[in-house]
Amino acid sequence: MNLNKEQQNKQNQLDKTQRKLAAARSRNDQDMITRFTEEVEKLTADLVQIQDKQKRTLTQKEREIKALPFSREITRAEQADIGQLKKSVRGLIIVHPMTKLGKGLGLNVMTGFARRPF
């Protein structure tokens, strides 16, 4: 399963469980409080694990992109016909500054990374 979908599913389960826990606390049902508290802890741990995995994947991509020897800003004209640019430059990776990867790299403008100058 996709990490984002898995994270969303776990977050939804956590929200449901927290609501059930709040209801059990209002009823003073100790058995249910214990059960839901354990489930919340388990789901929280799973979410942390998923987030760490996403961060490791993103960090690995950042290292791979930073290792490419050439990078430059993509002009507006090139942005308008990005498909043609990608076809003309083999191995071109374009990173937008508003994506997680772009924010992680500290980009301010759309940037292209490649093995050779383009």
UniProtKB/TrEMBL annotation:
Superkingdom per UniProt: Bacteria
Query: Which Pfam family is one of those matched by this entry?
Result: DUF2810
**Per the record, where are the segments of Low complexity compositional bias?**
1-14
Q: Where is this region: Disordered?
A: 1-28
Recorded hits in NCBIfam families, A to Z, give: PRK11020.1 (NF008244)
Indicate what this protein is called per its UniProt record.
YibL family ribosome-associated protein
Q: What organism does this protein naturally occur in? A: Vibrio caribbeanicus ATCC BAA-2122
